[in-house]
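Morning F.,

Quick status update on the modeling queue. The single chain you submitted on Monday has been processed. Sequence for confirmation:
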Amino acid sequence: MDKNLILAIALSMAVYFGWYKMMERYYPQPAKPAASAAAAPAKTDGLRPPASGELRGEPTPPKETSLGPAAPMDAPRAGGLDGSLAFRVDDLEMRFQPLGASIVSYRYPGPLGAVELVDTPYPGFFATWPELRFRQIDEAGNWPTFEAAHPSGILIRKEFLLREAGNLNTLRLTFKNPGSQEAMLPPWNLDVGPGIGTVPSERKENPTLWSAAALLPAPVGKKVDVFKDLKASQEPGRSTDAWRWLGVHNRYFLAAMFPPTERFEGYAHGGKAVTLDVPSWTGGTKKEEVLQPWISASAKPLTLPAGGSVTVEIPFYFGPKGYIRLSEIGHGLERSVSFGWFHRVGRFTIQVLHKFHGWTGNWGWAIIMLTICLQVILFPVTYKQMKSMAIMKKIQPEIVKIQQKYQKDPKRLQVEMMEVYKKHGANPLSGCLPILVQMPIFIALFNMLRGAWELHGAPWIFWVQDLSAHDRFYILPIIMGAVMFFQSKMNPVQSADPMQAKMMTYMPVIFTVMFLNFPAGLVLYWLTNSVLSLIQQTAVRKHLEK
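Structure tokens below.
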């Protein structure tokens, strides 16, 4: 089977599904807003929070805002950025809303500039009691601290123990009963979402990429934890499953929390319908109604004796999905990084890529080194394919004669062709083996390179200054197409079907157009792969044609 034919079939399927997804994007189903609901009880596991470091806080005085009734996932328009308080940790800029003491702006210091991760500041991330106005207190000094009196009489202190960007932080909640009688705090929710922001180049696709997520403990008899992607839905979903962590994420970023088992039970998730300004295919922006995912952990009721107090510490992560960094933090956060079907291959290759980056200090050269290593490993099957193609090319005239002679007798035709293959030691299916071996690797690399946060804003050389974005001058895909063209000329398709031969002739052009808007890192991989294949063909061609 011809390699280019396999690629043509794969390309046709990609175009079909790409068109289908584009139609879904422009003609979405109407959505209804959904509010969070309490979840049923479940056993969960606690997590020990990290120690906080020395931080710098720059709070600003609050300004008055109106107060109205609220629900956790459908807060009043009073709030959001209005009356929010600024805070800074190194290059990480945040704003906190006194209503619910939530994070309503989180500007992560990315390599290409700050990225706003709070997509909609109502009610804000890590919101609790959005109907309550918290006041800022300065006793802690080096992290945001808020207090509010609950109608039950319990005093609530909410502290964000923040470390440098890209680390695990802690939300500390202290409940104190200053009264002379026992007091009970009713069940309450801790919310993450709705939605999550991303880098400018991903904003157009973001509504199709974000979702809520939950990492669940491994089932009985299993060793691997279960990762669940919870797509935004119009109706809230509820679960009594235990969890390792809960959160929302998209291609590049993750907001996750670790509510402890002794204080929380069950979770709810859903989608909130909002109208956003999204980039248009024709330039500018357009209004689009989307469902923003959210997830909510439900806390158990709390009873405090007179003068009693309880402290609950909830570790959380809010930042980029760098696979190696999340693996270092642990607790299964790295499971949020998607590698598609062949995730084991993707995880292994990104670890190798990190190793090469440690040697070169440049992600572009690391990709080239990875591609060379893959070509060396796959050379035995590649050589077998080239040998098979050389034999098939040599016996093609004889095959054509047999096809013409027995075109009205299919059974005799098959017998005669098998005799020719046996005589020359040819196997027409052996050319498929390298494709079958390389396809999982290519798919895993495609997902890894397209979604790797490490490549965001990473330069290679000269004009390629962001390996996660497409080549703005289209130089790499054009060179790649030229190399593929020379490959096809060196090894032209010998086919009795003129349509197939013509399709193979145009394959370099089709691939060039297809790769124009692919990430430069992925194009660099395919270009390097094509150059190495061309060198291999040139080196062994004379030997095989003897």
